[in-house]
UniProtKB/TrEMBL annotation:
Residues 514-537 have a biased composition (Low complexity). It comes from Blastococcus goldschmidtiae. Residues 501-562 are annotated as: Disordered. The keyword Kinase does not apply. Coiled coil: none annotated. It holds the Pfam family Pyridoxal_deC. Its cofactor is pyridoxal 5'-phosphate. The keyword Lyase applies. Residues 501-513 have a biased composition (Basic and acidic residues). This is Pyridoxal-dependent decarboxylase. Belongs to the group II decarboxylase family. InterPro entries: Aromatic_deC, PyrdxlP-dep_de-COase, PyrdxlP-dep_Trfase, PyrdxlP-dep_Trfase_major, PyrdxlP-dep_Trfase_small. Keywords: Decarboxylase, Lyase, Pyridoxal phosphate.
């Protein structure tokens, strides 16, 4: 019998190697943060450039770690849009911080699965506690605390949170029937506004209702959901036999940060038994600042609420904070317990298993980075960050409001400012605005995005990166003004050239018309008319006589007849 071939051991990284290379990675990240402001904000690579820089085949043998770090600079960094750049004013902030990265590093190092309490009790209980802390800091109702009927969880995104809120709402509206028989798409209705994030309609599709179940409610002049219109739509649907399942109200819409009036919407939802879900993905964390908490007046009516710590609260993606007032509806929709997940703690009903609060089974220990961030900054440090961003945005809005080249969309209570450039008459305003946007983004110093309001292109300037200072906001304002002036001058020069061309064409046309008229007149006169007239005169007058009415003086010159 032949000897079995010797199996080579896998080249696992030893703790000492990890220590060495871990220091190198931390140094690389710190160096990246130090130099990110000198890089172009938006990647300049063309489609396919990154893949072209990579080998066509995977490595057969392990490579030195130095080569991996080297390829970060050679391949990866040039293909990045730098969301941590101080000149990043696009979308919404999506920032991390030192404590967040270190918390994520610990989570990755622990490598635990927090799907059930028993799989790592600390992963569940720390998360419950941190979410209770944040519920207090944001001024959310007591029903959202883990000590009551509800509680909080860290979801992967507000898109995911919107989906599970809808599933919980369907479960409640059907009395649990959706678990057994599925949804009745022809009967259920979901209410949004034209400004609601697209993830809500996506959730409706995923849930099996289909887009026909969505009712789009009119907005007011501030782009906030109109509660009178909502009530009228719900009344009509109920009269036709539909069941209003969920209303999604937004605190801080993606386009303009419009705020739906929760205090007016809540009683309407209660009247019809509809679930009120509040999507405060961007703006919700601002409630940590007491003077901004009024934007969420009426949140006590909410059945569920979501906000993203990974946008404006210095915590790396993914870290969506999600609360429900009635966790039984949520777990009723999502809980499923195969035998291989059964355990004594779960069977006793004394613990929370977060696998029943989300779509996937597995879950990372996300709460660690939130815990690190909150303990490093403290509530006051987080408030200082929010206040600083708002102050810079309001200063930018004041500059633009005093400038005849721009209009400022109001209201703008937070750190997003929407600007509509003014252009000369005769200029396609949307084309000009988008040209200005691309000119700024191509320059590499800043990155902005756009939206449309009332059918017109609008520039969005979102402040929030921890490295962004007043100097960076001054710079984006300077670039906006310079770009506007350059384009306006270019449009004026083009208009002058076009006017000159039109004048030249007008003169040419007039000259051509005059020549044509002259030629037409010449062509209309019969040939030999003058000769025939002269012959006729000679034949009718006696030789040597003068025409009637004339006389000849002694010098032979004609003289007037008296």
């Amino acid at each position: 019998m032949s000897e079995p071939s010797e199996i080579q051991p896998a080249p696992h990284m030893t703790p000492e190697q990890f220590r060495q290379h871990g220091h190198e990675v931390v140094d690389w990240i710190a160096d990246y943060w130090a130099r990110v402001g000198s890089l172009p904000v938006r990647s300049t690579v063309a489609p396919g450039d990154v893949r072209a820089a990579l080998p066509t085949a995977p490595p057969e043998r392990g490579e030195p770690f130095a080569d991996v770090l080297g390829d970060l600079d050679r391949v990866v960094v040039p293909g990045l849009t730098h969301w941590q750049h101080p000149g990043f004013f696009g979308y919404f902030p999506a920032n991390t911080s030192g404590p967040s990265v270190l918390g994520d590093l610990v989570s990755a190092g622990l490598g635990v699965q927090g799907m059930s309490w028993v799989t790592s009790p600390a992963a569940t209980e720390l998360e419950q506690h941190v979410l209770d802390w944040f519920a207090e800091l944001l001024g959310l109702p007591q029903s959202f605390r883990s000590s009551g009927t509800g509680g909080g969880i860290v979801q992967d995104s507000s898109s995911g949170a919107n989906l599970v809120a809808l599933l919980a709402a369907l479960h409640r509206a059907s009395g649990g029937a959706t678990v057994r028989r599925g949804v009745e798409p022809e009967r259920a209705t979901v209410y949004v506004s034209a400004e609601t994030h697209s993830s809500m309609e996506k959730a409706v599709r995923i849930a099996g209702l289909g887009s026909d179940a969505v009712r789009i409610v009119e907005v007011d002049g501030d782009l906030a959901m109109n509660p009178v219109a909502l009530a009228a739509r719900m009344e009509r649907d109920v009269a036709r036999g539909y069941t209003p399942v969920l209303v999604c109200a937004t605190v801080g819409t993606t386009s303009t940060t419009a705020v739906d009036p929760l205090a007016a919407i809540g009683p309407i939802c209660q009247k019809h038994g509809a679930w009120l879900h509040v999507d405060a993905a961007y703006a919700g964390v601002s409630a940590i600042v007491p003077e901004l908490r009024g934007l969420q007046d009426g949140v006590d009516w909410a059945d569920s609420y979501t906000t993203d710590a990974h946008k404006w609260l210095l915590t790396g993606f993914d870290a969506t904070l999600f609360w429900v007032a009635d966790r039984a509806a949520l777990t009723g929709a999502l809980a499923i317990l195969p035998e291989y997940l059964r355990n004594a703690a779960t069977d006793a009903g004394t613990v929370v298993d977060f696998r029943d609060w989300q779509v996937p089974l597995g879950r990372r220990f996300r709460a660690l980075k939130l815990w690190f961030v909150l303990r490093w900054y403290g509530a006051e440090g987080l408030r200082a960050h929010i206040r600083g961003s708002v102050a810079l945005a309001q200063e930018l809005a004041a500059w633009a409001g005093a400038d005849e080249r721009f209009d400022v969309l109001r209201p703008h209570p937070l750190s997003l400012v929407c600007l509509t450039p003014r252009w000369p008459s005769g200029v396609d305003a949307d084309v000009a605005t988008m040209t200005l946007l691309e000119r700024l983004n191509d320059g590499g110093e800043v990155f902005l995005t756009h939206t449309t309001v009332g059918g017109r292109a609008v520039l969005r300037v979102a402040v929030g990166a921890p490295t962004t200072t007043r100097a960076h906001v001054e710079r984006v304002w300077t670039l906006l003004c310079e770009g506007h002036d350059w384009l306006a001058a270019d449009f004026a020069a083009q208009a002058a050239e076009q006017a000159a061309a039109r004048e030249t064409e007008r003169r040419r046309a007039e000259a051509e018309s005059a020549r044509a008229q002259s030629a037409e007149a010449e062509g209309a006169r019969p040939q030999g008319v003058e000769a025939e007239s002269a012959e006729a005169q000679t034949e009718t007058e006696p030789e040597g006589t003068e025409p009637e009415g004339t006389a000849t003086d002694l010098a032979g010159a004609p003289a007037e007849h008296p």
